[in-house]
Write a structure and sequence with these properties.
Number of helices: 11
Helix content: 55-70%
Strand content: under 5%
Order of helices and strands: HHHHHHHHHHH
Radius of gyration: 19 Å
Structural class: mainly alpha
Shape: elongated
């Protein structure tokens, strides 16, 4: 197969610059990236000059191809955010769901970035209100702990109330889940014979 000279450079240097070029290529680039991964035997954990890996790309095809090739889903970017945190913050329900299908992705559900924010925290501050509840549900079902606090002492619920107090259903969901979690923890302690 004859390869365009520009793509040949990408193939020679691997995934490092594929992410950088993605910003310029725009949509429909995922087929090119998957193809490059296949023919280049690229390092699926290579880091771009912006501190990201391809796991941050907004394509299920690319994410699946990377996961199939053993990509590390726990690698933080230069800001300390995991792919799960980034996709949750950007309201990408389909990518959050795909990441959480894998044990490696679920393992990052309570990872805190450098300021203590988890995927649940970042979802509370996202700009996509229509995706907040679906992402909350996915994260909570995967074991997200709503009581975790960031370095300021804020929980995800605190941030949701601060950034978008009009999301009553999302606030109720987090309140109910946090309350149920506390009740379950108390019951567990009583069963073990401990005093509260």
């Amino acid at each position: 197969t004859r390869v365009h000279p520009g793509y040949r450079v990408l193939i020679m240097i691997g995934a490092v610059h594929v992410y950088d070029v993605w910003r310029d290529v725009g949509k429909n680039w995922h087929s090119l990236v998957v193809w490059l991964l296949d023919i280049n035997d690229a390092d699926v954990n290579a880091v771009s000059s912006f501190g990201n890996t391809l796991q941050y790309a907004s394509s299920v095809d690319i994410l699946t191809a990377l996961m199939d090739r053993g990509a590390d889903l726990t690698l933080p970017n230069s800001d300390g955010r995991t792919p799960l945190i980034t996709h949750a913050h950007r309201g990408r329900v389909y990518l959050v769901a795909r990441l959480l299908q894998e044990p490696r992705g679920r393992a990052t559900v309570n990872v805190q970035e450098r300021y203590g924010y988890t995927a649940l925290h970042w979802t509370s501050m996202n700009c996509w209100p229509k995706t907040t509840i679906p992402i909350f549900r996915l994260l909570l079902q995967a074991g997200a702990m709503p009581g975790l606090t960031n370095t300021r002492g804020d929980t995800a619920l605190d941030l949701l109330r601060e950034f978008d107090p009009t999301q009553n259903d999302a606030i109720t969901l987090l309140e109910e889940y946090a309350s149920a979690k506390k009740d379950a923890e108390k019951a567990s302690l009583l069963v073990k014979g401990r005093r509260l």
